[in-house]
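The authors assume throughout that readers already know how a fold can be written as C-alpha cells. For illustration, here is how one protein appears when written out as sequence plus C-alpha cells.
>
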Amino acid sequence: MGTLKVITSHSLTRLAACMADDLARTPSSLLERETVVVLNNGMARWISMELATLQGVCAGLDFRFPNEVIDNCFRAVLPALPSNSPFTRDAMTWRIAARLPGLLNHPAFEQVVGYLGKCTDDRRLLQISRALADLFDQYIIFRPEMILAWDNGKDDGWQSVLWREVASDTVGQHRAALLNTFRERIKSGAVSDGTLPRRISLFGISYLPPFHLQAFSLLAQFTNIAFYLQNPCGAYWGDIVSRQRLAELVLRDSMDADEYYDTGNPLLSSLGTMGQEFHDMLLEFGFDAIDLDQVDEQPPTSLLEAIQHDIRQLRDSGGRDEKHVCSHTDRSLQVNSCHGPLREMEVLYDNLLAMFDDSKTLEPRQIVVMIPDIEAYAPYIAAVFGARSGGRPAIPFTIADRSQRQENRAIETFFRILGLPATRFGVNQILELFEFPHVLARFGITSGELETIREWLRASGVRWGFDAEQRGALGFPLYDDFSWQAALTLLFLG
C-alpha cells in the first residue's frame, strides 16, 4: 500500500534536506533506482548538488519529466502498449501531414484550405501539421474529456474530424484513454507487487494539470508518492484575488466586494494565480500536507527579505499594512536596464564579481541565473564568462536546458547543411560550415588548407548566390557575377 503526501516550504534548501532525510530513512536496495520527477534539467542539477552536499554523494537517482514517468507506469501495467507512442508531438506531426491533404475537400476545412492554398505547399503543410500536433498534445493533457468525446464521435468542427482520422488506427493509445484503462486495471486489482516504482518523489513542481494529479493519486495505491513543493505563503491563500479581479467583481456585481474578497499580498495575488490553482487541486485530491516552515520568523533586515516576509504573511506593505524601513545602501534587490543581451551579461558578470568580493563564503555553484530564452543568450554567456581577456577572471558556469541541436555540433552541422538550399549561399555562411570539425574531418582538410581556401575565395570575389538560376529562384535578376559558379570558373581557369 502506497502513500500520498505533500511537503511544503518556502525554502527549496529545506525541501531538499527533507527529501535527503526521507531517502536515507528508507534507502533503496543497491541496484534499485530512485525516481525523482522535475520540470527542467536545471532543477535536476541543483538537487544533485544539494544532495551531494548533504549526504556526501548523490547516486542512483533517475530524474524524469512527469509525462515520461506516467508513460513508463502505463507500460508497466499495460504491457501490450507499443514502446514508442504514436501520439508524441513528432509522430503526430507526420501523421497529420500524411492525412490532412485527403481531408481538404471536406466542407469544414475551408480555413485550412485558405492557409495552404490551392496547391499544397510542403513547407506550409509541415508548419500547420507541427502546430496542430502541439495543439492536440495539449488537448490530451489539459482537456482529456474533449478528446474522449471526439473518440466517441462528437463533432466539434474540423479539428474533431482531423483527430479521428489521425487516431483511427491507434484507438485507445493516447494518454487520455490510457488513464481510464489504467484506472480500471488498478480497480480490478490486476496490478502485482513490484510492477510499479516503490517510490516517486516530485521536487520543485510549480504546476501540474489535473491529468497528472489523477495519475499520481492512482499510483499512490501501490507507490509512495511525495511532493516536495515550494509554497511561497505560510497562510491559506486559495481565496485571495488580484486588485484587477476585485475591480471587475465590483463593476459586475455592483456591490462592496471588499467585504467578501481579500487581495492579500498584491504581488502574490497578481502573479501566483497558477500556483494558487495548483494548491487548491492538491487539497481536492486529498494529499496529506506537511509544512516545514516555522511559525515565528525573524523580522526582515533587507528589501528582498521584506518582500518575501510580506508574501509569506499575506501582508500588503504598500497599502493597509505598515511599511518596512530599509537602508538606502540596501542592494538585495536590483534592476539593471541594458541595451542588449551582451551588455546584460557584462553587467551580470561585474555584479557577480562584486558579490564574490563581499562574501568570501559564496561559491559559483550556489548561484542560479534564470533566463527566459537560453538559446539566444548562450553565445554571450560563453563570450563574457569564459573569456580571460584583459586579466579578467573566468567565472565557472554551466548552461542547462539547451536543445540537443545546440549542444551537439554534429546535429547542428547536419541541419545547417539541410537548410542550405533555402539560403542565399553567402560566402561567410559556407565558410562557417567549413569550420565545423566534422566537415573538416569528412573531407580531410587541415587548418592550413582551410586558410588557403579562404584566400582563394577572397581572390575569386565570391559573395553570394550559387549561380544565376538560383538567384532568379530567389527573385533576383539572372546574373552570374560574384556567384559561386563564377568563382569556381575562375579557379579552374587559373
